[in-house]
Amino acid sequence: MIHEVDKNYLKRCVELAEIALMNGDAPFGSILVSQEGKILFEDHNKIASGDNTRHPEFEIARWAANHVNEAERREAVVYTSGEHCSMCASAHGLVGLG
Q1: 81: which of 18, 24, 36, 47 is 20 to 30 A away, CA to CA?
Q2: In this predicted model, what pLDDT tens digit does every residue of 55-85 receive, in sequence order?
Q3: What does the alpha-carbon distance between residue 56 and residue 20 come to, in Å, rounded to a whole number?
Q4: Which residues 6+ apart lie within 8 Å of 61 measured at CB?
C-alpha cells in the first residue's frame, strides 16, 4: 500500500522528471529521503550533457557516499520516477543505500 507521504515524494520525482524533459533529457527524477522523512538530495537526468552516467539515481549514490554515514545510508529511502537501471542499482548496493 502506498501512503500519502510516499505519494508526495513520488510526485516530487515526477516534477524533477519534467524538468529533465524540458532540458532535453530523458524524464527521470529521484530523491533521497532520510529515515526521519527529510529530503537529503534530489536530482534529475542530465545525460544530454554527453555523460551517460548522469542518472539521478547514480548522482544520489555519489552524493550519499560523500555526505551520509553508513548507518544513515542503510535507513534512507530512494524514490524515483522509474525503475533503476543496472548501473544505478549497482551503485546503490555498493554505497549501501536502503
Answers
A1: 36
A2: 999 999 999 999 999 999 999 999 999 998 9
A3: 10
A4: 88, 91, 92, 94, 95, 97
